[in-house]
Structures are given as C-alpha cells and as structure tokens.
Amino acid sequence: MLSEAERLACLRLIRSEYVGPVTYRHLLGRFGTAEAALAGLPALARKGGRRRPIRICPQPEAERELESLSVVGGRMVMLGEMAYPAALEALEDAPPVLSLLGRDEALSSPAVAIVGARNASANACRFAETLARGLGEAEHLVVSGLARGIDAAAHRGALATGTLAVLAGGVDVVYPPQNRGLYEDMREQGLLLSEVPFGTQPQARHFPRRNRLISGLSKGVVVVEAALRSGSLITARFAADQGREVMAVPGSPLDPRAKGCNSLIKQGATLIDSLEDVLQAITPEARLGTRPLPPQAPPVLADAAAEEEAESGKARLLELLGPSPVAVDELVRRCHLSAAAVSVALLELELAGRLERHPGARVSLVLDAKADAGL
Question: CA 20 to 30 Å from 188, out of 34, 115, 160, 297?
C-alpha cells in the first residue's frame, strides 16, 4: 500500500515534463520510488543533454488536482494499488494514475467495449444499444468513449447495469457538449475514467491514447460501424496488439460507414450479428488462439555498470536514431550495448526532450530537440 506522500509523488512524477507512462515505469525501475525519481529528474535530463531545467510538477499543483477531484466526488487510483484495474496492469504504457468519477465498483465486472461511428445510422445505434443492454444483463461492464453515435448508444443501453466511459479530456470535462445529459447520467449511474489532468480540454493527440484504454480495459472490442479511416479502427488495432478479441458487425458494401467493419472481418475479426456471438467469442475456450499480454514485471533497479555503459555508448545510439520510429530491440541489436544500458540512455535522452516514444516499444529522435533541450 502506497503512503500518502508516495501517492502524491506518483502524481507529481507523471505530471512532470517529458514523463509519460513508459518513462514513469523506467524511472521507478531506476530509483525504486516516485519520491526518489523526482529528486533524480534534473540530473538525468542534464546527462541527456538538456541545459534548461526540466519542469517538475510542484507539490501544490498536484495537491490542487487531488482536491479538485475530491470536491466533485471523484478519486484517484495509482498503478500498483489494489483498486487499479487489473486488465490495464499488463500494458507497457499503463497509466500511472487514473481519475475516477461515478460508481467505481463497476470495475470488478468483466468488460466488453463497443465502439463505432459518430455519424452512425439509426439501425447501427439501435443494434449497439440492444447489444449493450444484453451484455449488461449478462453481467458484463460495457466500455466506450462517450462520443456521439455508437458510443452514446452503447452507454445508454447499459446505463442501468453498468457502463464505463473513457474520456480524452479531464474527468470533469464534458465532451462533446451535446452529450452533457448522458455525462450527468454516467456520473450518477455509470463510471467516468481519465488519465489526463483534471480540467484538461481534449485535444486530437489525446484520442488515440484514450482508445488504447478502451481496448485495454476489455476482454474484447465490438466495432459496430466505422469508416476505413476512423478512431474505431485504431481501437481495434490496439485490441489486437493487446491480445483482446476483435469483433465487427458487417454492413452494406454501399455504405462507407460499414467499410471499416467489413475490412476488419476480412482481416480475421469475428463477425458479430447477435449478443450470443459476442458472448461466444469472449469465452475462455473461444479465446485460446489469442495471446493476452503477460503481466508487466516489477521494475528492476538499474545498476552502476549499466549507467556507465550507457554513458560511453550514447553517441553510438544517437547515430542510429532518427525522426522515423525504430524498435528498441533493434537498437539493442545494432548498437552492441546491453538492453539495460540502452534503457538508461533512452531515458536520459527522453527527459532531455530529445526522444519520443511510440506504441509498440518504438522510439524516434525529436526533430527540434536542439531547441527543446536548450542546446
């Protein structure tokens, strides 16, 4: 169990400059605690080449966020606490902190995500609502993103039995505004969840990160209606990468809103046209062919040898990096450094603002890193 001081340090760490979920894990691996990691951030950023001081979240700022969340009736859960959703713990980029608003006992139920088009057809919305109601009656938590169209229909269908909305903005921010009534209903009867700071307005870059949580929380993802280039297909891709079941509802080849689902089915997604299809697809017996992510290993403290090796090999590593993302495993193979040393060097470069992490354990060099690092 985390002490109150360590919980506050966890929040300050993830809200500090250049610290994302993967970096957070590496920092805990290097220092053991969030409090120690906060103290070590400035030195790591300097070793990575940064001259300007890195911004560390001030303690009063973190305390205000916790207080603001408490005032509206919410609470915060940290990675590693008993209340943290078990389904998310295995993700490489599991959020270090989650803000919850509503009935968080819903997290104890097995979850299925339902996603789809914002400009969905009436028939698709009716199907999503009926499917969600049936899943709820079968004691499953329905997860979606509170968007217009299919998301909203799924939440309404499962409102009486249990539904969770993963938000791209702060847990207190209603988006889109048209769904304010549904948002208020979710506060009373469902659950709202977010990893971004309280009061944050959603931005385009937040939505893919939200989508990985929708799939990560769930045993499977049902795509009801989606165009070929849509956020729903991003959610489906995350689900496949995370070892979750991908399901899709077929549609007319003449309707652009069905092309994404039809494409998923061609690629191997399970065809869904009833509640029974979904329940069958997510049974353990049916999911023998899927490979859920193994649990994340606890952080391992970096040793002095790895730090020395990282320092001597950093120039070699920088030569291999560029603006195009490359797998960390590939860097280890090509730079002839140990995996521990590469991890240390990448961490220092990231905290200097010179490195960006991407899904799938890939990294790239930031093009304007020289300006960001104050070089």
Answer: 115
Angle (deg, nearest 10), helices 231-241 and 259-266: 20
pTM above 0.85, yes or no: yes
DSSP 62-81: HHHHHHHHHHTT-EEEETTS
- Domain 103-281: CATH architecture, name and number where available: 3-Layer(aba) Sandwich (3.40)
- The residues, ordered by sequence, that sit 6+ positions from 327 with a Cβ below 8 Å of its Cβ are 360, 361, 362
Q: Could you report the per-residue pLDDT of 133-143, keeping only the tens digit for each?
A: 999 999 999 99
DSSP 213-269: HHHHTSSEEEE-S--SSSHHHHHHHHHHHTT-EEEE----TT-GGGHHHHHHHHTTP
Place of tokens 């979710």: 186
Per-residue pLDDT at 295 exceeds 50: yes
Query: How much is the CA Rg of the chain, to the nearest whole Å?
Result: 21
Identical fold, 103-281 and 304-372: no
Tell me if 235 sits within 8 A of 353, measured CB to CB.
no
CB 227 within 8 A of CB 257: yes
Comparing CA positions, the residue from 270, 202, 189 lying closest to residue 231 is 202
The residue among 79, 35, 28 whose CA lies nearest residue 299 is 28
